[in-house]
Amino acid sequence: MTAAPLSRPLAITGATLIDGTGAPPLPEATVVIEDGRFSRVGPTATTPVPDGAEVIDGHGRFLIPGLVDMHVHIGPPQDEHLPLFLAAGVTTVMDLGGQVADLQRYRAAIASGTRIGPRLYFTGPLLEEAEPYAGFAHMSH
After folding, report:
1. What pLDDT digit, counting tens, does each position of 65-76 carry?
2. Is the pTM of this model over 0.90?
3. Cβ-contact 80, 115 below 8 angstroms
């Protein structure tokens, strides 16, 4: 997921921050993003917002680190769902059985910014018998 840096700083103020370290949630937190990076994080009362920043009121909302889904299958038509991962807070996925050529294309398009989606990792091609899923067909009941 590569996005062009914002033209001006972005500040989310008043949110409850869960930082993923196991620390207690920080109510009334401010997070500032400048040049595509987190530049300031802390209590709203002591974390300054840069002049000219776009400010989003985070009261009643939570900020959490991006989530990781370690077992997905992405390919036509599921590739159309890539933006939905981000909408659900999933910023990284691991495909465990897709078509490598398709996945390489998706990853390149996301990295170039021509497609919206999460950071994409994947395994190599599936190793199967001549008949896909043949092992399941021969299992005794």
Report:
1. 999 999 999 988
2. no
3. no
